[in-house]
Structures are given as C-alpha cells and as structure tokens.
Specification:
single chain, alpha/beta, Aspartate Aminotransferase, domain 1, Aspartate Aminotransferase, domain 2, 2 domains, 7-stranded mixed beta sheet, 4-stranded antiparallel beta sheet, 12 helices, about 35% helix, binds pyridoxal-5'-phosphate
Length: about 400
C-alpha cells in the first residue's frame, strides 16, 4: 500500500485564483462583451528585451555547431559568465562581497523558496508575515512543519507576524522563538519595502535567536530609492544568518524563460541535534546537485545579457514602465479618495477597501461598477482582509482607463 504524505491533506484548497476566475466568469456570462481590465495578475506583460532575445538566438546557434554543443550544464550555474556577472553587478557594485561558490543558479525563486526548507530539521519553527506569498507556508505544511489550519486560515505551529498599517506592513521580529523566518522585500502582496533599520532589527534578532532568515528579493529591481538596501547582505552580520533569493522573472520579464539564484554564504551554519555546527551551504549544494541538473545554457546566456550595458538599459526601461503604471494607479486612485500603500518601490499597490468593506465585497464592486479585476487581500492571509492588491504589470492605456473608470464609478 502506497501511503500518501498526509501533510498534503492539511493544505487549504487553492482558493484565491479559482474563485476570482469563477466570479469573473459569472460576470462575463451576465454581461457578454464586457471589457474587463485585469489588474490582478502578478505576471510581466512587456516583450523580452532585444538584448535577451539576441543572446538566446546566439546561444541556440552556438549549440547547433559541433564546437558549441553542450550537454548538462554545471549544476550550480555557469561560473565563468553568469555567476561572474551576478557577483559583479548585483553584489560587488553595492560593496557586498559574495564568493562564486555561494551562488546557486536555478530555474526559479518559487522553487528555491519552496525547496530551501528541506535542509532544515522537521521540528524547526517557521515564521512568516501575514499576508504572505503562499509558497513559504505551503512548502512547510507539505514537509510536516505545521498542524491543521484553523477556520481563520492560520496553520497551527506556524508563527504569523501581522503586516499592518500601524507597522508600515513591515512587522518587527517576533517575541517568541522561531528558527526560520521568511521575509520578502519589496513585498508581494503589500508593495511595502524594508528599510535599512527594518533589516538591521531582523539581522540583530536572527543572530541573537540563532535563527535563519530566508530573504526573497524577487522585486529588488523595483526599488527606486538608491539608499534603500537591495540585498540583505548590505546589513552587517547578515552573512551569518541569511539566505537570499533573487529572480530574473520580474526584473527582466523572465517568468516564461525561468532563471533565478539563491545565495547561501559560507559563514552561515545550522546546528545538529548534538550541537555541532554545519555550513548550510554544503547541504544546499548537495541538495542542488542531487535534485537539479542545472539551468539551460541558452537561458543562462539570456540572464547574462540582462547585465550587459544594453540589457541593463532595456530591462531598466521595462521596470520604469511598470513603475510609471504604479504611479498612475497610486495618484489616480488617491485622487478618487482611496487610501493606498506600496507601489513606490514595488509593482504592487495595496488598496484599503472603502467603508470597511471586505476584500471580496470590494472585488465584486470593482468588477460590477468599473469592470476592473483586482486581487482580494484576504486571499494572501487573514491580515490581508480589508485590502485589494492591484498590479502595475500591464498596458499603460489600460491602467489609465482603469483609474478613469474607478473614478467615474465613485466608491
Ligand atoms: C514572482 C515571485 C517570485 C519569482 O518566482 P520565479 O519562480 O523566479 O518566477 C518569487 N517570490 C515572490 C514573492 C514572487 O512574487
């Protein structure tokens, strides 16, 4: 008898996006031909940068020759070009030394953030912010680090740190002990960004608590203020308590190309049951080599092109485009009387629902009165109740049109 992993049964149904699809479908049926504007997606919309396309073409052509043919790529990533470019542009340029052996290239931060928990013991206590990117929680539920979910949607045994208006959507470290904490900045879904002081408090706490921070910086390219930290390693002491993840998905439109990386510093250790300290890098290297066969050469060349002078210019222009959408949304909707957060260093706007309405009520109103589709904040966790996430990915004209419609509809 092949017994199943019963922890999977604790997972709550993937409720959010199917429910959005159901409500949108019902609306379409009742209003055939309705012109909907989708501000709900967390996916890029602009075409790939020409420098990236050219790199893909060149790498593919190279592999079509006897000399240029390549088999399995190195598991950890191409040290001679992509890892070198990451070190130089993402770290050395900001005064952060990272060794090539500490960088692990992968096919996505979703999988990295889901897989990282494997190198930790089954009884590690995890802490997450609420609302949260669901992958951090669900991957730990699957691994058995949580009990059943309560009616409110909290899993037993997981520490939830409410991200609220009061704490600027950047919760401080918990009073109780946690072993592994997931932080995402700039944040999906709230659009909040961690300041240096925020990260200093977290690093200080993690070092004292002997905890590990998993820092998801998938949206670092959207930070507009150069004085804000882009990497947690800009904070003294972070090398001994933090793992960092970055992705080419949002910064360069790679959601369909697939490339990301994780940094596990050599200074970072975990403890055995007998108190021996073991470098986490060794465990992650072992996991990576056992379960992953490397990112395609063509894709690694595409990622390298993001760092070329042309690639940098072109991908920065894409980010600028989305951030101008964010500005139009923020200013337009603030003008229409909404209270909004985020969208200054992130492609997401976190909009307070009017008149204390629930997230889903407001979702329905936006759909009915303005034919605009948002994402109910409550779908990201109980503390997201009372908010709607609006995404700045999308077409400029449509974003402007959405603002106009919402303003005209009045709320
Ligand atoms: C989009 C996103 C990622 C990136 O995932 P990929 O697998 O690299 O495409 C990671 N974390 C968060 C919070 C995201 O929203």
């Amino acid at each position: 008898m092949a017994q199943i992993n019963e922890h999977y049964r604790k997972l709550q149904a993937g409720y959010l996006f199917p429910e959005i699809a159901r409500r949108v479908g019902a609306f379409r049926e009742a209003h055939p031909g309705a012109d909907l504007i989708r501000l709900g997606i967390g996916d890029v919309t602009l075409p790939l940068a020409p420098a990236v396309v050219e790199a893909i073409r060149r790498a593919a052509a190279e592999m079509g020759t006897p000399e240029g043919m390549r088999g399995y790529p190195p598991e950890q990533g191409a040290e001679d070009f992509l890892i070198a470019a990451i070190r130089e542009h993402d770290y050395a340029a900001r005064g952060v030394p990272v060794d090539p052996s500490e960088i692990f290239v992968s096919d996505g931060s979703k999988q990295d953030s889901a897989n990282i928990q494997e190198i930790f013991g089954p009884r590690c206590r995890i802490a997450v912010t609420d609302p949260v990117y669901p992958v951090y929680v669900d991957s730990n539920v699957m691994a058995g680090r949580a009990g059943p979910a309560t009616a409110e949607g909290y899993y037993e045994g997981v520490i939830y740190l409410p991200a609220t208006e009061k704490n600027g959507f950047m919760p401080p470290p918990p009073e109780e002990h946690a072993d592994l904490v997931y932080l995402c900045s700039p944040n999906n879904p709230t659009g909040a960004v961690a300041t240096r002081q925020n990260l200093e408090a977290w690093v200080d706490w993690a070092r004292r608590a002997d905890a590990v921070i998993v820092f998801d910086a998938a949206y670092d390219a959207f930070i507009r203020d150069p004085s804000l930290p882009r990497s947690i390693y800009e904070i003294d002491g972070a090398r001994s308590c933090a793992i960092e993840m970055r992705s080419f998905s949002k910064r360069a439109g790679f959601t369909g190309v697939r490339c990301a990386y994780t940094v596990v510093p050599r200074d970072l250790t975990g403890s055995t049951s007998t108190g021996e300290r073991v470098p986490l890098r060794e465990l992650w290297a072992r996991r990576h080599a056992t379960k992953f066969n490397g990112v395609p050469y063509v894709v690694q060349r595409a990622a390298e092109a993001v760092f070329d002078p042309e690639g940098r210019k072109q991908t920065a222009a894409q980010v600028d485009y989305y951030m101008e959408n964010a500005r139009i949304l923020r200013e337009g909707l603030a003008g229409a009387g909404f209270t909004l957060f985020g969208g200054e260093h992130a492609p997401y706007i976190w909009m307070r629902t009017p008149e204390g309405r629930s997230s889903w009520e407001t979702f329905d109103l936006l759909l009915e009165r303005a034919q605009v589709v948002g994402t109910p904040g409550s779908g990201f966790g109980p503390s997201g109740e009372g908010y709607i996430r609006l995404s700045a990915f999308g077409d400029r004209d449509r974003v402007a049109e959405a603002v106009e419609r919402i303003t005209r509809a009045g709320f």
